[in-house]
Write a structure and sequence with these properties.
single chain, about 280 residues, mainly alpha, MetI-like fold, globular
Length: about 280
């Protein structure tokens, strides 16, 4: 077999394997959409295409839930996630700029120490953080879900630092010769040139905050007007299943991932570019 033929065969097998993998991951998503468009009596039917087709489950999601809580759950999740994105971008970008550009004694050691925190599961720091927030008297509010984003993060700092290192250092030298401060270099040069990496970090931060279930369960009250969408859907799961409305739960699950899909497809090009140039996998 010639080398070109062997390469073509390998490419075909690779695309077939990737296609099967994509189909395997896509089927549960399609099944969720299919169930959300069925009548409750047909919720366990094996047909992928709903028959009959109905949007009543989405109407029931807003009308039948206790105290019409679904809009409040969506709003709370959006509010917390957007603030988390802002906090992560600001703090991680500034820390990454310092580690990439500013030279000071112990820089490499501090950066290695920061990366070492990636090996610590978030559950380990849950109790110490809870004690801190208890002394701050913010338990039962949304602040414990927002403030940690403004403390920076090892992953976001590493992602942006790797991207900052790809920007020519000559830009810094030229700006410094023109009298620009370090903050001017960061704000006017590095941050605008790092849109792909910033977009990638924003998607990661939004996804992590939007899908977070553990921390809202710990810090927020059970009041559905104050908690997040993930917690609300978890509370509704048993109630809707016992009520024979598994289709309504699937409608809520589908709506909960729509924002993530929209954000990813809107910023897809910047996201892929940022990951490729920074060399980060997650």
């Amino acid at each position: 077999m010639k080398k070109s033929q062997y390469k073509a065969l390998v490419d075909i097998l690779t695309y077939v394997a990737l296609g099967l993998g994509a189909l395997t991951m896509l089927l549960p998503f399609l099944w969720m959409i299919s169930v959300s468009l069925r009548e409750p009596a047909q919720q366990y039917a094996r047909d992928l295409i709903p028959n009959p087709f109905t949007l009543q489950n989405y109407v029931d999601l807003f009308e039948d839930l206790p105290n019409q809580a679904f809009p409040y759950l969506v709003f709370n999740s959006f509010k917390i996630s957007l603030l988390a994105v802002i906090g992560q971008i600001l703090t991680c970008a500034m820390a990454a700029f310092v580690f990439a550009i500013v030279k000071f004694r112990g820089r490499d050691f501090l950066f290695a120490l920061l990366l070492a925190t990636l090996m610590i599961p978030p559950q380990v720091s849950l109790i110490p953080n809870f004690i801190i927030f208890k002394y701050l008297h913010v338990i039962g509010t949304q602040w414990p879900l927002i403030l940690p984003a403004f403390w920076g993060g090892a992953f976001g700092t590493f992602l942006l630092r790797q991207y900052f290192l790809t920007i020519p250092r000559d830009l810094v030298d030229a700006a410094r010769m023109d009298g620009a401060s370090l903050f001017d270099v960061f704000w006017r040069i590095y941050l605008p040139l790092s849109k792909p990496a910033v977009a990638a970090l924003a998607i990661f931060a939004f996804k992590d905050s939007w899908n977070d279930l553990l921390h809202p369960l710990v810090y927020l009250p059970t009041d559905l007007h104050q908690t997040t969408l993930t917690v609300g859907l978890a509370f509704f799961q048993q109630q809707l299943q016992l009520g024979g409305k598994f289709t309504v739960l699937m409608a809520g699950a589908f709506l909960s991932i729509v924002p993530l899909l929209i954000i990813f497809f809107v910023a897809q090009r910047q996201f892929i570019e940022g990951i490729a140039l920074s060399g980060v996998k997650r």
